[in-house]
Amino acid sequence: MSVLEHARILIVDDDETIRKSLATVLKEKGCLIDTAESGREAISKSEKDAYNLAFIDIRLPDMDGVQLLTAMKETTPKMVKIIITGYPSLQNAIEAVNRGADGYIVKPIKMDELLTMITEHLKKQQEARKYTEEKVADFIETRAKELDDRK
Q1: How many helices (H) and strands (E) in the chain?
Q2: Has residue 112 been placed in a domain?
Q3: Where are the beta strands (DSSP E) in the chain?
Q4: Calpha distance 63→67 (Å, rounded)
Q5: Would you say the pTM of this structure is higher than 0.90?
Q6: CATH code, domain carrying 46
Q7: Are the C-beta atoms of 40 and 109 separated by less than 8 Å?
Q8: Which domain, by its residues, includes 33?
Q9: CB burial class (10 A; 0-12, 13-18, 19+) of residue 96?
């Protein structure tokens, strides 16, 4: 099974064409897609649902993407956040990374590059989750043995 299958992805962009085209390509890869056209809508959705990854447009009608990054860091700290922009600048890229962006993509989006980036980030996320689960299992096993030894 590919890491893309069943990955929950939120696409935040005020451009309906971008939302629909990204959603179509990612659904074909087995991703579960949700969309938002504003920062407030994205925050609301991320408070209700868990996403593996979010694409965030740098320019939204109610806030900029960097502000949204900061807000979403609070609601979903483990979610991978990738900024999308049609207005690339070194300043935007640096600020986005400093505020917690995991990636930065320039429009027009090259789908093969996008899919490679998503796959790499989801693999890292999956490995981190597996590592955490193993550590928790080790802790529980050790603690259970300690409690048995006391009896």
Answers
A1: 5, 5
A2: yes
A3: 8-12, 32-36, 53-57, 80-85, 103-106
A4: 6
A5: no
A6: 3.40.50.2300
A7: no
A8: 8-125
A9: buried
- Encode burial over 61-95: b for 16+ CB neighbours within 10 A, e otherwise: eebbbbebbebbeebbeebbbbbbbeeeeeebbeb
Structure tokens at 19: 């939302």
Asked if 51 and 34 touch (Cβ cutoff 8 Å), the reply is yes
Model confidence pLDDT, tens digit, residues 55-86: 999 999 999 888 998 888 777 778 899 999 88
User: Is pLDDT larger for residue 102 or for residue 2?
Assistant: 102
Number of domains comprising the chain:
1
Roughly how many angstroms between the first and final C-alpha of the chain, as a whole number? 44
CA dihedral 12, 14, 16, 19 (to 10 degrees): -20
